[in-house]
Each structure stands twice: as structure tokens, then as C-alpha cells.
Amino acid sequence: MSKVSTNVVPISWDDSKGEILWLDNSKIPWKEVSVSSKSLARLIKAIQALEIRGAPILGEAGAYGTAMIANNSPNSKERILKNVMEHGARLAAARPTAVNLSWGVLQIQNVVKNEYKRGASPAEIKKTAIEAAKRIQRENIEATYKIGEHGKKLIHDGDVFVTICNAGTLACDGLGTSTAPMRAAYSDGIKFKVLATYTAPLYQGARLTAWEMHKDGIPVQVITDNMAGHLMREEKATAVWAGADRILGNSTKESGTVYNKIGTFGLAMMARELGIKTYVAAPTSTIDPEHSVKEIKIEQRQPEEVETLLNGTTVVPKGVGVLNPAFDRTPPGYVSAIVTELGIAKAPYNASIPKLLSLPGSMAKLSK
Ligand code: MRU
Predict the structure, then answer these.
(1) Which of 117, 198, 313, 349 is deepest in the core (most CB within 10 A)?
(2) Is residue 187 lining ligand 1, measured as CB closer than 6 Å?
(3) Residue of minimum CA distance from atom 6 in ligand 1
(4) What is residue 67's three-state secondary structure?
(5) Which residues contact 367 (CB under 8 A, 6 or more apart)?
């Protein structure tokens, strides 16, 4: 495996204080601020304010948050179980689109239920829940390295990539998801460059992806979202690389549908028009084998994010309405390949994704 690494630790568990520690994404690139708390309300606020964000990190936050609920509970098995189920449901609902948040909560709820059933003591239940959350983080990190190894096969000298939002370490831990193949290829000496789209209205592409790529020494230039079509053609882009917040993985023709940051569908359509690829990278924990398009809720965020620039300048005339969907849906026909830790899936996704999920090590199966 390539020697690629990152120094950023987006989230961790502080054993001595029983607290979750996270790097506040909303302050980057201006400040690197770590925040810690043992309060569930504070954790939910951090998730909703995008201090903690990105699907795989939300999975870790869901797992650590649920372990924290157990740890904060009185030393009664019944109370631990009740709190983990009830407050865990509140945590899982903090953001609706990324499947990983509810997945992470569910993993720890299942651990607690099993511990309860086997007659473990309150102290044992708490300890096992925390250990399970740490294991989930380790597995997430390992998955990013494997995504890097599989995905770098799609990268060649001279490639020009367009990215959206941030599916890097800050969002996914380890090497990130869509950034992992790039990091692995870069470390193998392959020469390519990245055009990171702004990703208005919160600029995760400019603030976070460009910050990560630049730190690593990977050639990156930031472009505004509306420059994408023109620059993809003029700069001879070879692929769009996106992460995912949820990928449908049922056995119908919806399989391979990608929910990702608003703008992904537009980029995928432009890519197809220009004859270039759209690659999506995500761990199998982002694959949702259970739901269909009509059941997925796209998060609508506050109008202020569109009305006002990050510096506080209002750009929308008073009284004019705005729309602010945080994610969009890209149909499978626009997706050239999905890179996971278990390998690369290609169309037809209603065959390739269920096949991936049946492999040993699939994280999607853990929800069952
Ligand atoms: O709203 P955010 O910042 O939590 O959005 C998540 C994302 O960064 C993306 O949609 C990303 O591409 C997938 S999550 C790795």
C-alpha cells in the first residue's frame, strides 16, 4: 500500500473526559479549532452547523455520540438501553440525507442491545459501546486507504479532475473518499491536477478541499461553480470525482443513484455532454440497500445561507425568496463507476452493488 498520510484528526474520543473531540469544519481555513463536549445537544448542534460534516464522519459521530449517550447514563442497564434508543433516535435525525449518521447510531444501538441481552453489567455495556465506536472509526479509516488503492487505477498522468464539496479527510477521516485515489496516485508519482469547485453556499470545496489538497502538495485551483462547464472543456478535464452521502443499493433500476452535495448532478450532466467520466467514491457504509428514491429526504437548509455571503454581506434583495437544498440526486446512468473499499462497481448497478455488499467485510450489512 502506498505511503500516503494526512495529519488531520477530524474526530476522536477522549477517554479521560468521556468526551467527543472534533475539528470545527466551519472555521477552516481561517482557524483550526478543536471543540470537545460530552453534551448530546452540543453534538447535534455541531452536526447541524456543519462543524462536523461529511457522510463517513457523520457515521463516526453517530457511533461516538451513541456511545457517549450510554456513557453519560446512570449505572442501570435499563436506563442505558432506554437512553441509547431514545436519544440515539434524536441524534440520527440531526441531518436526514447522509445515511451514515443513522448507520453509526444503529451500530452502537445494536451493540448495546446485545450486551444488555447477554447480561453485561452497566460498566461493561459502556466500555463495549465506546470500544465499538473506536472500531468503527478504525474501519472507516482503513476503508479510505482501500478506496485509494482501488481508485488510483482510474488515475493517469495528465488527468484533470473536477471536485465538488469536500469528501476529504475532514469529511471521511483517513485519506478521505474522493480524495483517496488522488492521494494514492499522487504518492505513486502520477501527475494530475484538481479544479475544486467553490460549492456555494458554504464553500466546502474552496475552504476545505483546496485546503487539504494544498497541504498535501497536490496541484489544485479553485473555480466558482458556474465556471465548471467552460473550464471542464477548456482545461480538458478527464473526470469529475465526487463523494456520496447516500448511494441506493437495492436490486431495482434505482440502484447506483447517488445523493451528494448540491451541484453534483449538474457536473455529472456536463461531464456526460463532454464525454468525460463521473466517478463516485464512498465506503459501503454509505450504500443504502433498503430505501428507494421516493423515501429519501433531501435536507433543505436555512435561507440565510443563500441570502448572505460568509462575510455577512447580504446579496439577495429583501423580500425575495430563496431555495437551499443541500444535496441532489444523480441517476445511475450518469455515474461511470463507484469506488468502494471492496472494489469498483460499474453499471448495471442493480447487479454490481448487491454483489459488492455480499462480499465479506461489507459495512452495509452491519445495519441488518
Ligand atoms: O453538507 P456537507 O458538507 O455535510 O456535505 C457533505 C459533503 O461533503 C458532500 O456531499 C460529500 O461530497 C460527500 S460526504 C463525504
Answers:
(1) 349
(2) no
(3) 54
(4) helix
(5) 103, 106, 107, 290
What's domain 11-145's superfamily in CATH? translation initiation factor eif-2b, domain 1 (1.20.120.420)
Q: Taking a C-beta distance cutoff of 8 angstroms, is the pair 182, 161 a contact? A: yes
Dihedral, 261, 267, 269, 270 alpha carbons, nearest 10: 170
Confidence band of 180 (pLDDT split at 50, 70, 90)? very high
The secondary structure element, H or E, covering residue 21 is strand 19-23
- 7 — pLDDT class (breaks 50, 70, 90): confident
**Looking at ligand 1, which atom is closest to the CA of residue 326?**
1
Q: Is the pLDDT of residue 291 over 60?
A: yes
Catalytic residue among 159, 173, 216, 245: 245
Could you give the CA distance from residue 164 to residue 212 in angstroms, rounded to a whole number?
A: 13
| Helix or strand run (H / E) with residue 160 | strand 159-163
CATH superfamily of 150-367: Translation initiation factor eif-2b; domain 2 (3.40.50.10470)
What type of residue is 325?
P
Is residue 50 lining ligand 1, measured as CB closer than 6 Å?
Answer: yes
Over residues 47-60, mean pLDDT? 97
